[in-house]
Amino acid sequence: MFSRLSKSTLVLIAFASVYLFWGSTYLGIHVAGEHLSAPVVGASRSLLSTTLIVLICLLSGKSLRVPKGEGWKLALVGVLFMSGNNVALIYGEQMVPSGFASLVVSIMPIMIALIEWMRPGGESLNKRGWAGTLLGTAGIVLLVWPSLHHHAAQTGASRPFLGTCVLLFAALSFAIGSVLSRHFQFKADTFVATGWEIGAAGIFNLVLAIATGGLHRAVWTWHGVGAIVYLSIFGSLFGLVAFTYLLQNVAVTKVATYAFVNPMIAVLLGFLVLGERLVSTEIVGMAIIVCGVATVVLSRVDRTKREIVGMAGEAVE
């Protein structure tokens, strides 16, 4: 069916998938986190996604082998993506609204740029990149600081500051994983490598769920299971396939627009489905963050003259 569509149509479908599916994951994570502990959600989502990837590879005759020496690297990146990032994000969304969480996490492309700048032999930022970094930082301050009391009083989020710190850790974990993914330069097939990454994270999250007692105390509900299935199929599988297709067929600066479109989707869904609202200072902070991230994403590095991307390789949202 898809083979009959034109390339331009496929590109539009892929963009719509990345924008909608990855933007809606914040809502799915919020719902899943209300019913199950963060490690249980992370383990269930990762293991289900891995199972689907393995089945697809087996049915298509694709080998699950990866080049020698890449296994542990894929596992490390996977744990950073789907454990350090995903589990922390679930924890964070238990303390702040989902739309608010998406805005905090949207600072991630700026973190990637800074990590690259600090890494030996990494990519240095030009003036536009530094301007975007400072702008995005100012946006985070404006977004978070004036609204802490508002969320604590109006939304029942009694620990908004802690939640924000957890979300920043989640973004940092994903940023480190993205830089490592680029640095390792995996030779394995993208789809297979993704299976290894998510599978390693699934095992790690399962051990964490057992160790913390979350699996023993888990109360499985239709809403919780439905959210996990949605995150596994649409967030991890469909979203990843669409993102990979875009990386192969569209300029990276256009693909990277997900970094400032996803928060808009998350905020809209939080408003429509969960009744979340942003105060005026948060709206201004959101606009500043989006401008800052866009400036960094669209800037060019001084040393290599290559465009900075918000995410690289097999990153999974």
Please give a structural write-up.
- This protein is mostly helical.
- The chain has one domain (2-297).
- 74% of the residues lie in helices and 0% in strands.
- It has helices at 7-35, 38-60, 71-93, 98-105, 108-118, 127-144, 148-154, 160-184, 190-211, 214-217, 222-249, 252-255, 258-273, 280-297.
- Helix 1 (7-35) packs across helix 4 (98-105) and helix 2 (38-60) packs across helix 11 (222-249).
- The longest helix has 29 residues, at 7-35.
- The chain is globular and about 50 Å long.
- Mean pLDDT is 81; it is low at 301-316.
Mean pLDDT: 81
Q: Which assembly state applies to the chains in this document?
A: single chain
Terminus-to-terminus distance: 27 Å
Q: Would you identify the regions where 5 or more consecutive residues have pLDDT less than 50?
A: 301-316
Rg (C-alpha, Å): 19 Å
Write the layout of secondary structure elements.
Blueprint: H1 7-35, H2 38-60, H3 71-93, H4 98-105, H5 108-118, H6 127-144, H7 148-154, H8 160-184, H9 190-211, H10 214-217, H11 222-249, H12 252-255, H13 258-273, H14 280-297
Helix pairs in contact: 1-3, 1-4, 1-11, 1-13, 2-3, 2-9, 2-11, 3-8, 3-9, 4-13, 5-6, 5-8, 5-14, 6-14
